[in-house]
Design a protein that fits this description.
Chain A is an alpha+beta fold. Chain A is 27% helix and 27% strand. Chain B is mainly beta. Chain B is built from 2 helices and 11 strands. The longest helix of chain B has 6 residues. Chain B starts with a strand and ends in a 5-residue tail after the last strand. In chain B, 34% of the residues are buried. Classes of the chains: A alpha+beta, B mainly beta. Chains A and B meet through helix 1 and helix 2 of A and strand 6, helix 2 and strand 7 of B.
């Protein structure tokens, strides 16, 4: 992993069109500003992982539950 | 003819196919799905992969269970799905079915948003929301 040290207000460019700015940092919390084209999706890593994990669980076979489900509620 | 997980072998109309340009998290190669009803009351449907017969999610209209469910679509999503009117938007949320079924939850943090006018769809991950991935769909007690 490339590791760069930046100060508050300084930024990093990734490629031509992505810029990441350190807005502020206090103790162990860093506020980051991201400028990226709209087609680049930006997520908090743990949130994305959570959605991915939930989708995997949701894809499990539910054949045994189909009757309960067909009765609906 | 197409094989499905819960509906046997069926014939589908190309126009019914929803296209997820980027797949969905965890299933990035799955870009085409169709919605097939699972219950007579039309509440539960399968979101069936067109390419993988064994892959199907159970989806619901979230507003049926959560009357005040509300979120705003970011411009990037509106653009990506080419949404011209709010009337063209259909929303599903994915269920995580549990046994017993009463413990089933749904993912309100990442709704499936469909533009019914062009059949483009996307599982949108909401930013800055209080919605989570596991909301019980039935009230306890």
């Amino acid at each position: 992993m490339l590791v760069l040290t930046r100060k508050n207000g300084e930024s990093i460019k990734i490629g031509d069109d992505i810029e990441i700015t350190i807005i502020s940092s206090k103790n162990d919390q860093v506020k980051i500003g991201i400028n990226a084209p709209k087609h680049v999706e930006v997520y908090r890593t743990e949130i994305y992982e959570q959605i991915l994990e939930e989708n995997k669980q949701a894809s499990h076979d539910i054949s045994s539950l189909l009757n309960a489900l067909k009765q609906g509620r | 003819m197409m094989k499905t997980k819960y509906h046997g072998e069926i014939e589908i109309n190309q126009e019914e196919i929803l296209h997820f340009e980027r797949g969905i998290p965890g299933f990035l190669d799955e870009k085409d799905f169709i919605i097939l009803s699972l219950s007579k009351n039309q509440i539960y449907s399968a979101m069936q992969s067109v390419t993988t017969p064994l892959l199907a999610f159970v989806v619901v209209n979230p507003f049926h269970f959560f009357h005040d469910y509300d979120f705003e679509l970011e411009d990037s999503v509106v653009e990506e799905l080419d949404i011209k009117s709010q009337n063209d938007v259909q929303v599903f949320s994915i269920l995580t079915c549990e046994d017993p079924f009463e413990n089933t939850t749904t993912n309100l943090q990442a709704p499936v948003v469909i533009n019914t006018s062009n059949h483009r769809a996307k599982q949108v991950i909401l930013h800055n929301t209080n919605y989570k991935t596991k909301h019980p769909i039935f009230q306890k007690g």
